[in-house]
Amino acid sequence: MTDIPSTDVPRGAVTRVGSWTLANPDGEVRAVSSRCRHQLGDLSKGTLDANGCLVCPWHGSRYDLDTGAMVSGPHGFLWYVGRTPGYTQLVQWFGAVVKLRRAAVVRVGERLRVGA
């Protein structure tokens, strides 16, 4: 189990704690595994979009934090960023089936405990 100060994950923040990515889209912190299902990009370096989805910093795959499913696929491959018809849909299908792992986040005083 890992814990951090709750002030380290304010609303709108994404950070890494051990092997987990913590994200706070709406005041409720969620923990998901840190590797994108596309090319293993570090999701803790990602951002949150207006819908509260975690966005991969490499090619923009978007993940639902409540289910761990990829809700939209990548926009590129390796160093290329742009349209990838067919490939994007294949990766999106894979990301919907092989979801990010999720862990419980529990507030203990002024700290957040991951994996409780």
Oligomer: single chain
The CATH class is identified as Mainly Beta
Write down the overall mean pLDDT: 89
CATH homologous superfamily?
Rieske [2Fe-2S] iron-sulphur domain
Total number of helices: 1
Order of helices and strands: EEEEEEEEEEHEEE
Compile the SSE list and pairings:
Layout: E1 2-5, E2 14-17, E3 20-23, E4 30-33, E5 47-48, E6 54-55, E7 62-63, E8 70-72, E9 76-77, E10 80-81, H1 87-97, E11 102-103, E12 105-108, E13 111-114
Antiparallel strand pairs: 1-13, 2-3, 3-4, 4-11, 5-6, 6-7, 7-8, 9-10, 12-13
Textual characterization of the structure:
9% of the residues lie in helices and 34% in strands. It has 1 helix and 13 strands. The strands form 4 sheets. Strands 2-3-4-11 form a 4-stranded antiparallel β-sheet, with no helix packed on it. Strands 5-6-7-8 form a 4-stranded antiparallel β-sheet. Strands 1-13-12 form a 3-stranded antiparallel β-sheet, with no helix packed on it. A hairpin with a 5-residue loop joins strand 5 (47-48) and strand 6. The mean pLDDT is 89.
What is shown here, in short?
The protein has about 120 residues and is mainly beta. It has one helix at about 85-95, and strands at about 1-5, 15, 20-25, 30-35, 45-50, 55, 60-65, 70, 75, 80, 100-105, 105-110, 110-115.
Task: List its salient traits.
single chain, 116 residues, mainly beta, Rieske Iron-sulfur Protein, four-stranded antiparallel β-sheet, 1 helix
